[in-house]
Every structure is written in structure tokens, then in C-alpha cells.
Amino acid sequence: MKKFVAVFLSMIIITGAAIFYITYIWTQNPYEPDKNHLIIGGDIITDIEEPLLEDGNILLSFNAIKKYLDPNAYWDEKLGKVVFTTKDKLITMKTDKLSAMVNQKPVDLNIPARVVDETPYIPIQFLQEMLDITATLASGRIAVIDYNREPVITGKLLEPRGIKRDSSIFSPFVVKKLDAGEKVRVFDRAGKWCKVRTKDGVMGYIEDKYLETGEEARPEPLPQEPAIEPFKPEKGKINMVWEHVVNRNPDISKLKKMEGLDIVSPTWFAVTDGEGNIANKGDMEYVEWAHLNGYQVWGLATNDFNPDNTHIFLNNTDTREKIINQLLIYANLYKLDGINIDFENIYVKDKDMFTQFMRELYPLCREQGLTLSVDVTMISGSANWSQSFNRKALSEAVDYMAVMAYDQHWASSPKAGSVAQYKWVEYGLKRILEEVPAEKIILGMPFYTRLWQEQKVDGSIKVSSKALSMSGIQKILKEKTPEVKWDAESGQYYAQYKENEITYKVWIEDARSINLKSSLVHKYGLAGAAAWRRGFETENIWAVIADNLKDKEDYQQWAQANNFDLLSLE
Questions:
Q1: Residue 391's domain is classified under what CATH number?
Q2: Among 125, 180, 273, 557, which residue's CB has the most CB atoms within a 10 Å radius?
Q3: DSSP state at residue 549
Q4: Could you read off the pLDDT of 471-482 as tens digits, one per residue?
């Protein structure tokens, strides 16, 4: 019995000693001494490459920056070039170069970007302002990154105390003792424990009863240039029209003033090859005519609708830069007010590179005072070109997004149908609004219609069509005199007739259908409307659009004035 008691007492003593050692004596260094370490905010980052530390400079791996600081960072491995973008800044660095380009102007670096073991490393202090962070070196080999947007909560120790590794009294110390009055940064709480970081960059926990906490005043932000606001009309919503220029610009002596119009967008520029060369059809006389009539000019640039060339130039950082430089030169040369990018037939695999192109163009347009817009197709569930746009990401890299709400049934469609059925337009618009802010959307409307032909060939129906202007289709209807009926589903008049064993069908765009479609601008709080294309409309169209976008103040006002149209859509 005495032996049992002795053993039992020995076990108690040993256990107590172990608890005392763990609780009050045992210190465990959280950092390996032969490595560099990275802290971001209140977290020790261990799942990414360790930073490089050289003479007070911190180089973070590109992977760390992309994962934790800037998801839009871009690395061009072939060219050894890294790209960072914000709304107002385009920063590029080439590895092993002691300079960077900020909005295309050279800036000296203390230390160059470089590639180590196939991983690019970037001098992070240079990017502090752009990323809105503060990067510092703590004692030892610890790089500390703090987000400036987060409030700084500090805790002052009320008595000498150590910092634990975990939120438990039985956890080992990471710091044996801090003196009373010393400050730590507090990040969050776990019960009665506070997660803190010491001035030496050590992360750990301390009970809140030993801290007097308070929020530090944040440093004054650096002086900022005045915010650049995108174009907004003096009255109402944006009213824009595209000017289709094929070989020559229109004769301005024959152009009439368009009521309520704010912007003309001529199709002047096209990237013609994979090397980024641009064909230019700009016309200063046209710009002077537009400005004299109070219209802004947003020069439109296409990718020539060539997906192979587009793939080549989008995937080369230098070629993207070449294209951007040319567009900016032309914008300055012709005194443009904006640039409208209309890249179509893009391979789905290139959609992220198209977004990157727009990110790189946006800050340079803003610096030059240009409004930047991009054209996108309606969302479709089928595997077609509509999936080539990351609409949410694109909306963050432009002032406006023009949604081309037409070609529901396109030129080679196997089935005859409306170019832009009202309910199809509204449904597609609702889907885009799930991803894009309403105040950035310009609703694209068609000024054209398609005359469809259905002909029996070898027992099957062959379908073909041709695009016609509003006056063109009215001329045919007057000549053929078919019965014309209002179709509530499409929000258009419909007619069909037969001639020489061929059935002709048409869903008509006119003042009434445009009135309906343009009402969606107020219904969903959009930025405005645009139309493809000038010259395809009848003269009465401008009064309809001007009334809806400039005179009507909201959708309710429009609905009251057009009650018969609303009833006909039920």
C-alpha cells in the first residue's frame, strides 16, 4: 500500500511539473530559423513560396501576390513581364530590369523583379500604394504585410506577460515575456483570448484581461488626384448610336441632326493581324461635325472578328501594349471623347485574356480623359461566342458595357424569327444584371430587321434571310400588302406573304417596338441605350427615343403614357 501511494504521489508530482513547464516555462519558436517567413495581417502564410529578403527589400513570389494581394496580377512567362492594374494605374515590370513602367512612364526600382527556380519574385514595397498595403520587415527573417483598409486595434499589456502559441493555458509560449506597457496588434478574439502580433512579427494569443485595447488613428491617406467620373449626359439617360463605316465616312453635308442624341460611335479602327497592327478610317471632319452638333465621339475598335488573330495578339503582353498605344494615339489625333471596344468571335479559351486587355487599357483611357466602353453579346446557354465574355470582370474594367441585345435569330439561323424579341431582350437583360451593375449597362437595340425566306428543297425547308433598314422593310410591305398583325410575344408587328412558292416572314422593328425596348432603360435603371446603326432608322425613331430617355423620368411615367402597349404585352 505504501508503495502504491509513493508511485501515485510521484505521478502527481511529475504531472504537475509537466503542466508547470508547459504552462509557465516551455517556449516554442513558431518560425524555422533558416527560412524567411511571411505574415499577412493576422496570418502566418505557409502554403506559398517564402519571400526573398535583400538589404531591407522584400520580394514576394508572384503566386503569393496573386493569391493574397491582387487576384488580377498577370505574369507573361514568355516575355518575363509582370502586369498590375487598377482603375488608374498600369504597372509593368520586366525581370532583371531596374525600372518599371507606371502608366507608360519609366520609374526607377531599388531592386528588380527576378525569376528564381522558375518562380517570378516582385519587389513588393514598390507596389504598396497601388495595392493599398504596408510592407515592413520585422526582426529576424519575417516580412509583414498589412492591409491599410483594415482598422488597427492595439493592446497595451497591463502587466508582464507571455504570448501563447494557441488560445489555451496549456499551450507553449511563443514569447516568454513582454513588459508591462508594451503594445501588440490585436486581430481577433477566441473566447477570452486575443490573437495578437508583437512588434517583432510573432503571432500568438494572450488573455484579454491582460490587455487594454483601443483603435489607433489611421495615417492620413496619400493625396489623391480628383476622381475621374465617366461621361454622363446633362439630361436623362445616355442615347448613343453606332456609325457603320465600311470604306468611306458619311458625307456630313447630308447628315441630319438627331434629336436627343449624345454619342456617335464610328467603326473606325480594326486590329487586322496577330501582330497588333490597326487599320484606321478616322475622319477629323466627322468629329468636327459631331462636336458642333453636341455629340461625343467614341471611336469603335474591332478585332476584325478574326478569332485566330485575336488569340495571338491577346496572349502577348507587348502586342496588347502596341494596340493600346495606337488607340490612344488615334484618340488624341482625332480628339475623341471615348473608345468603344467591339471584339467579337473570341475563342472561349481567350476570354480571360480579353479581360486582361481591357484592364490594361482602362487606366490609360482614364488618364487621357477618355470614356471606355465594351460591347458584349447577350448571355446564352449554348456553346457559342456569348461565352467568350466574363461580363462581371469586364464591367470592373470599363465605364460602360453595351449589351448587343439583338441577333436572337441571326443571318444564318436555321429558324426564322425576330432579331430582338421584347421578352427575349428583357430575359437576357435580367441575367446580365445578375453580374453587372445597372448603372454601367447601355442597352443595344436594332434599327434593322430581317426578311426571312422559307423554301422547300428536296423535302425540307431551306431558310435564308437578309437584313433591311426600317424604311426598306416598309417599302416591301407597301408593295406586297400582306396582313400585318401585332405580336405580343415579340413586341413587334409581324407579317408574312407567299410568292413563287417561297414564304416570306418578317418581325418588324419600328417606332412601337423601339418604344418598348427603350422603356427597359428606366424599368431596370440602366445607363442608357445605343442603336445599331445610324441610317437604318426612320426619322420618327429619334423623337421616340428622346422622349423615353430624356423626357420621361421613370418607368412608371412611361407606363402611364403607354398603357395600351402594356396591356398588349400581357
A1: 3.20.20.80
A2: 125
A3: I
A4: 999 999 999 999
